[in-house]
Task: structure prediction
Amino acid sequence: MLVSRFLDYLIKEKNYSPLTLKAYQKDLSDFEIFLKNINQNFTSADSKHIRLWLSTLTEQQLADKTINRKIAALKSFYKFLLKTGTISQNPAAQLSSLKNHRQIPVPFSTAEMQQLFDLDLFPDDFEGLRDKAVITLFYSTGIRRAELINIRLQDIDFHKKELKVLGKRNKQRLIPLLDYTIKALKDYITTKENFFKTPPVDDTHLFVTKKGKKMYEVLVYRIINSYLSKVSVKHKKSPHMLRHTFATHLLNNGADLNAIKELLGHSSLAATQVYTHSSIQQLKNIYNKAHPRSKK
Result:
């Protein structure tokens, strides 16, 4: 019951993604099972019980990233319980994330992205034009997977060349659209209207399946992996990789970090700076070639 209320709160108040909700639900379920085994429950558990659970996870050799997500789930859950008056003290208040060596993914190169669009890999039918619009939108705007899935037709202003998206914590932002992106969207929308003789089952959202239902997460991953596999041998192919590629390519071409922060919908520059690693490398190469003392 407590977990259901918490998840409902994250959906309605915080606009968390379905994948995060599913992960948090699993994390809290695992913690609840652990507590039952030591004759405790969510409201009776204290900080030492939480530390004991985390130590067992470490003994199981779970990845630091996984444990940190479980820590985040507990901190958020107990903060909610305190806020709603279910508990009087927060046993997770002093929890700190584990320090891990973050592996920064390598973005797709400009050549790979250019090849993807130049080779005309997208079929000239409903699914092909939809997939092209999906990938074009990811690469040209840097939006998140959940943001793309939830785009409604009314969120696009072709006259102003703007897209309105609802990001994390219900933060709304406007993103400019390139002419190339607008063409891809219009081609898809026209084909979509012709493809469905009657309005699709979901006629509110921009992207739908061939059965007319709202697009779902697994299909988005499948689309990206299918097309990017034709031009890249990189192991990771996902919506986040296209978001990473968008930011990196902008930085490499001189875009201001603050502007990219706004486009990505980040609340702080710290979140945006993770995308600068390859730009720094490019800067080093330019610096080493250009500085008079570099060849000394």
